[in-house]
Amino acid sequence: MNDDVPVSSRRRLRRKAVAVLGAVSLLVLAACGSADPTPTATSSPAAFEPVAQQQGSEITVWADAARVPGVQAYQKAHPDVKIKIVTYSGDANGANDLQTKVQLFDRTGSGWPDVAFSANVNDASWASQGKTPYAAPVNQGVVSQPTLKGFADGALNPCTFNGNTYCLRNDLAQNVLWYNKALMDKFGYPVPTTWEEYQALGEKVAEEHPGYLVGTAGDAWSPEVYFWASQCPASTATGAKKVKVDLQDAKCTRMAKLLDSLIAKGSVSKDTVFSAGFIKNQASKVLMLPGPSWFGQVLFNSTFKTPKGQIAAASPPKFEGDAKNYTGNVGGGLWFVSSHSKNLKAAADLVTWMTTSDAYQGTAGTYPAYKKAAVTWLANQKKTGYFAEDVGPVFEESAELIWPGWAATQYSQEAIYSSTVVPALNSGKTLTDTLDTWQTAITDKAKSLGYTVD
Predict the structure, then answer these.
(1) Is the pTM of this model over 0.70?
(2) SS3 per-residue string spanning the chain
(3) Which of these, 41, 72, 92, 118, is most buried using a 10 Å CB contact count?
(4) How many other CB atoms sit within 10 Å of the CB of residue 107?
(5) Is the dihedral of CA 415, 421, 426, 427 positive or negative?
């Protein structure tokens, strides 16, 4: 965020931006299948061997403040389950609290929470590793297969390592093309379906309606919005701790050049949408904005205060010549069941409820990862009457279009982009100018965490 914004305001806006990235999702357990009564090992050489179980024992649940009401709702609906709730950061805002504590518990041999929520979609990259990973492989008899199959295609990819699934996804933050239908109609502009059309329209907007915007490149999550959609191999997993990083790939340079063109003309901002200056001076001039599904209610409605009936969502654009349109996502929380839990049945039952229950997930702040809960959520969104058009079909389509080549890693693309690219843009350099520096920063960070980089 801009340096001229007071620190307190920046922190508040940052917390608001990140808090929504992992909003709560729920659906009636009986409708989707509960955890199997007794988790058992499979015949696989890497079979999960639970610790001695103590049925009916208390489970400890770590969750952030936004998720605690959901855990309390589960507790109220299941009074026979003994639950100790611990409120913690949820690893929001780049916190590393869960991993730090787990490392301590690994050394002392006790203390692991039976269940933990994380707003950091990359946390499974470490929770699934080690001789005894913190996270239990929930696909090995911990959570039922029908439940696992009920998640959106690709939703569990950040949880999946070496053929096992180590968490359940709370919500999705799939990117779509947001646009102000009232303004688009007023200016007589069609909604672009390709990135080439998007660029041409951005250039036209700069000429005909200077000051209006079709995007931003100063947000920490800009790589996930633009470069992920372009299928740029900024971090493509090629092994358990091996990634390919190639920002000179044509699918990276094409997006960099596109954005450079629109930044130069002024129709793509170098600011972040959550800065006080942007909210005050530019929010009303956003014509289009590629971004996550939570932008609708959180950004346009709650933050920008855009009036009802103006904002709509379109399918993610694709580049001409590409077989299909892909997109990325910005956020999406994770629920872990501890491999050390002595009451896996209760832990898995809670996590299943928290991610699939209509009773809670249907009114959550962001799009549920569980498909059946998403149907209820979309129906409730339609009832609000906020959007100019029904966003349901676009959200459902985009949830299945996440490009699988962008890997969940132990390092944060957002942190690297913010510290490397954003300052360069603000100093007058182009994205194309910074690709090599950006590549070096990603590579160095990956290697420092033990990754082999192609």
Answers:
(1) yes
(2) CCCCCCHHHHHHHHHHHHHHHHCCCCCCHHHHCCCCCCCCCCCCCCCCCCCCCCCCCCEEEEECCCCHHHHHHHHHHCCCCCEEEEECCCCHHHCCHHHHHHHHHHHHCCCCCCEEEECCCCCHHHHCCCCCCCECCCCCCCCCHHHHHCECCCCCHHHEECCEECCEECECCEEEEEEEHHHHHHHCCCCCCEHHHHHHHHHHHHHHCCCCECEECCCCCHHHHHHCCCCCCCCEEEECCEEECCCCCHHHHHHHHHHHHHHHHCCEECCCCCCHHHHHHCHHHECEEEEECCHHHHHHHHHCCCCCCCEEEECCCECCCCCCCCECECCCCEEEEECCCCCHHHHHHHHHHHHHCHHHHCCCCCCECEHHHHHHHHHHHHHHCCCCCCCHHHHHHHHCCECCCCCCCCCCHHHHHHHHHHHHHHCCCCHHHHHHHHHHHHHHHHHHCCCEEC
(3) 118
(4) 8
(5) positive
CA atoms of 41 and 50, how far apart (whole Å):
8
CA distances from 212 to 182, 253, 287 (A): 14, 25, 6
Is residue 151 within 8 A of residue 370, CB to CB? The reply is: yes
User: Can you tell me the distance from the alpha carbon of 452 to that of 317, in angstroms, rounded to the nearest whole number?
Assistant: 33
∠ Cα 328 450 120 (to 5°): 35
Taking the C-alpha atoms of residue 148 and residue 32, their distance in angstroms, rounded to an integer, is: 9
Distance (Å, whole) CA 396 – CA 351: 23
Q: For tokens 């914004």, what's the residue?
A: 5
* Token pair for 373: 């809960």
